[in-house]
Write a structure and sequence with these properties.
With 488 residues, the protein is mainly alpha-helical. Helices cover 63% and strands 1% of the residues.
């Protein structure tokens, strides 16, 4: 199932050849890795940059959490950001930790679905996740320009706005081309600078906090908007699995991945809940004012215009970090899919100077630019719908791999049996079904068309292989031993 050219790394003893299964009486387990055999250790991601890349895959700071208060009131917003991580974020992070260490290669969730259910579902997973990823990326340059127009009014509309979005997208894509290690340390810098004003604001707010405000259920005349509330929680605490597509670029992923995910979950949740409680406790305003971007207004109330400006600049830096992290995931997903044989070999070409997947970066950037100037509310909703479908397939792949290959080596293993894993996945799955059930007809239509296109793409690639129109990695040439007689 895994292509020729994937490096197989048995723990002990010396490995067999790439085309011959192990022949010992108790064969060791082999781990499929989609990275090429040429490695550049100085360019591999280490713990701290990986933590901040995960942070920017998921959050990027408290920007965007405000509508939860507007939708359901202070108490439920606080409870939401306290409880929802246990329902959604932690299960998703645990699954990512186990499967990324069992299959430490570029491609992530594509490898998992392929290993669990075969190439059709691996390809469909790739389509769903890639389209949702690159369409969501398009929002971040627009978000940056929206914040900049508060400082420079010339960016409010017209050609200056279009030019700013285009140039910022191209510039940020070029930074991605310079190398994942550079992107990782850039994420560390952006994370510190964009979070610092929230730390300062929370400290300054302490004497002004009135704890009874935390217990408010909101204004009686403001109707609860549960759709907005749950969507705000969902998309502020989502995308933990995106970093799995970078597993082949991480130094010692079996050890570092679980640690990075554990720290990132705590770090991200604290980055949300502390400023939220500080502002709710210190600022008394009409509930309807809690729109996206209100944190900057609250900073001015608590401390002054200087802090408001810093948070607005921090929002731009956060958008840059989100763009870089998610573009990296999309580009390395393309690389991994080429190495797995889901795409022609050309899509896996790396830059000779920087080792980055420049074809994946260009492809992701072109699609991102193509939707940047559209009124893409329904398109983004459709992309999120596709991501939800992908997550349901991911949960199913996780449980099925446990059942199908119980003896497979898992450097990190979620400490539950299959019944416990089913329950752990069932709770967020119910939430995903709820999110999809309340989608609009337009979202159903666009998502359906994208899914049909994904199915068509799989059979088109299969036809191309049969006709030998393009060169592909030889998918299926290797036999991956899982345990005593088990193999993929």
């Amino acid at each position: 199932m895994f292509s020729n050219g994937h490096q197989t790394t048995p723990p002990q003893p010396p490995p067999t050849t790439s085309t011959t299964p192990a022949t010992t009486q108790n064969p060791p387990q082999l781990l499929p890795i989609t990275t090429t055999t040429t490695t550049h250790d100085p360019k591999k991601l280490t713990l701290i940059p990986l933590i901040f890349l995960i942070y920017f895959e998921v959050a990027g700071g408290p920007y965007g959490e405000e509508p939860a208060v507007q939708a359901a009131g202070p108490l439920l917003a606080i409870l939401g950001f306290l409880i929802f991580p246990f329902i959604w974020s932690i299960p998703e992070a645990l699954i990512t930790a186990e499967l990324s260490t069992a299959f430490p290669g570029n491609g992530g969730f594509v490898i998992w679905a392929d290993a669990a259910f075969g190439p059709f579902f691996g390809s469909l997973m790739g389509t769903w996740k890639f389209l949702s990823g690159v369409i969501n990326i398009a929002a971040f340059p627009v978000l940056c320009v929206d914040y900049l127009k508060n400082i420079f009014s010339v960016f409010s509309g017209g050609y200056p706005r279009y030019l700013a979005v285009t140039l910022s997208t191209l510039l940020l894509s070029f930074v991605n081309y310079l190398g994942l290690s550079i992107v990782g340390y850039f994420a560390v810098f952006l994370g510190i600078i964009s979070l610092l004003p929230f730390i300062i604001m929370s400290l300054i707010a302490i004497p002004q906090i009135k704890p009874h405000r935390w217990l408010s259920l909101g204004q009686k005349e403001v109707k609860h908007d549960w759709n907005l509330f749950f969507n705000t929680l969902f998309w502020n605490l989502n995308f933990w699995d995106n970093v799995s597509t970078l597993a082949g670029e991480v130094k010692n992923p079996q050890k570092i991945f679980p640690k990075a995910l554990f720290i990132a979950v705590i770090f991200t949740c604290l980055a949300y809940i502390i400023p939220l409680m500080a502002v709710i406790g210190a600022v008394s305003v009409d509930q309807n004012e809690w729109e996206a971007g209100f944190m900057a207004q609250a900073a001015e109330i608590i401390s002054g215009k200087w802090l408001k400006l810093w948070i607005e600049i921090g929002a731009v830096l956060s958008g840059i970090g989100l763009f870089e992290a998610q573009l990296s995931s999309s580009a390395y997903q393309v690389l991994g899919m080429a190495e797995l044989g889901f795409l022609p070999k050309f899509f896996g070409v790396r830059s000779k100077g920087f080792g980055t997947p420049w074809v994946g970066i260009v492809l992701s950037t072109v699609i991102t630019l193509s939707v940047s100037f559209m009124n893409f509310t329904d398109i983004i909703s459709s992309a999120n719908f596709l991501y939800s479908l992908g997550m349901l397939l991911e949960f199913a792949s996780f449980v099925w791999l446990r059942r199908k290959y119980p003896a497979m080596k898992r450097p990190y293993r979620v400490p539950m049996g299959i019944p416990g894993l089913v329950v752990m996945c069932l709770v967020p799955s119910v939430f995903l079904v709820f999110i999809m059930a309340i989608a609009t007809k337009v979202v159903y239509l666009v998502s359906g068309l994208m899914t049909v296109a994904g199915v068509g793409w799989y059979f088109f690639i299969k036809y191309c292989k049969a006709k030998k129109w393009f060169k592909f990695s030889e998918n299926g040439a290797e036999f991956i031993t899982i345990g005593n007689g088990e193999g993929i």
